[in-house]
Amino acid sequence: MNSLRLASVVSLLGPFLALAIVAGGFAVADQMQERGGGFTSAYNVRQIAASTTVVAIAGLGMTVIILAGGIDLSAGTGLALASVVLASLLEHKWPLALALAAAIGAGGLCGFANGLIIAKGRIVPFIVTLGTMMVWLGIAKKIADNKTIHVNREYVPDWLQNLLSASESRAILGLPMGAWVAVAMSAVLAFVLTKTVFGRHVTAVGSNEAAARLSGLPVDRIKIAVYVLGGIFFGAAGLCLFSQLSIGDPTQGTGKELDVIAAVIIGGGSLAGGRASVAGTLAGAATMAVIRSGCTQLGLDNPIQDIALGLIIVVAVAVDQWRQRRAV
Q1: Any idea which of 6-10, 137-141, 314-318 has the lowest mean pLDDT?
Q2: Residue 13 maps to a domain
Q3: How does pLDDT run across 263-299, given as a tens digit for each residue?
Q4: What is the CATH number of the domain that holds 112?
Q5: Residue 94 located in a structural domain
């Protein structure tokens, strides 16, 4: 029992330990530079938190999906679609509340379509979402007339413009407002997944779908609900994406799905399903932001950042596979 408890603690704290090691390594390397100290400055910490937010919020949606044994490759174009919907409606002077609801609803609708096809069509999630990734991109381009929608800032409230601002005057307790939104959403999702019947059912489906069906669980409905919930989180991430520049760019989310999936995997999630952690996903998203910021502070170009992130993802997947073999 003690060994199982120790393994559980290590699994929970592992992503945070990795984050601490990566951050500490960059902090030391930065201090060794002639003009060091930029990495650990309060402004850079706020920048890292702001950079983490979009991937973290979308990662929460992916956490639920991966926990249920699924995957969503359309997450990036889905959140871009949400930002385009918001930009288009604000440009047409819709009330803010309706525009926000429509944008998040667009994400939920994308999730519903994915879930319905996967559950009722019995099609592999990878194939379905690979296809819908292009569908959402095409719809976003159609709405935006194949261009970037630039919204007049007078139509965008200050709080939305400054959601991811790294300015000290806009920060709340040292962090951008959007980072606290991500923390609040994480707390709610963690409660749902660990303390509710729905959360237990999601884990059961991801751990062993056949056994879940035999036990009488409504697996199809659970799958659809999971993708809808994931889509809502992607929609919320799209709002944060919009807030950065007050634009709706159909191509802005292309490739984001890789960052989102990577955050879950680095955070200890298993692509086989049945295991994913809300806290781990936050740590995974933060680790990726720290690596990018640290490389920038050290003057390392983008290819080096991509190589570093790729190697970390490979290691995380290798550790996951090792765990699965040990469990068998």
Answers
A1: 6-10
A2: no
A3: 999 998 888 888 899 999 999 999 999 999 988 888 8
A4: 1.10.3470
A5: yes
Position 159 in a domain: yes
Domain that holds residue 234: 38-327
Quickly state the pLDDT bin for 1 (edges 50, 70, 90). Answer: very low
Distances (CA, A) of 15 to 188, 189, 232, 269, 271: 20, 18, 25, 10, 16
How many CB atoms within 10 Å of residue 158? 10
CA–CA gap between residue 237 and residue 217 (Å, rounded): 30
pTM of the model: 0.92
**pLDDT value, residue 152:** 87
With b meaning 16 or more CB within 10 Å and e meaning fewer, what string describes 102-111?
Answer: bbbbbbbbbb
Report if residue 85 sits inside a domain: yes
Determine the residue type at 187.
A
In this prediction, residue 3 carries a pLDDT of: 55
Provide the angle, in degrees to the nearest 10, between the axes of the packed helices 42-67 and 219-245. Answer: 160
Give the Å distances, CA to CA, from 312 to 18, 71, 254, 316. Answer: 10, 20, 21, 6
Residue 8 pLDDT level (bands cut at 50, 70, 90): low
Give the model's pLDDT for residue 5: 59
- Domain count along the chain: 1
Helix (H) or strand (E) holding 247: strand 247-248
* Cβ neighbours around 234 below 10 Å, total: 37
- Please give the angle made by the CA atoms of 97, 98 and 100, to the nearest 5 degrees: 65
What is d(CA 266, CA 288) in angstroms, rounded to the nearest whole number? 9
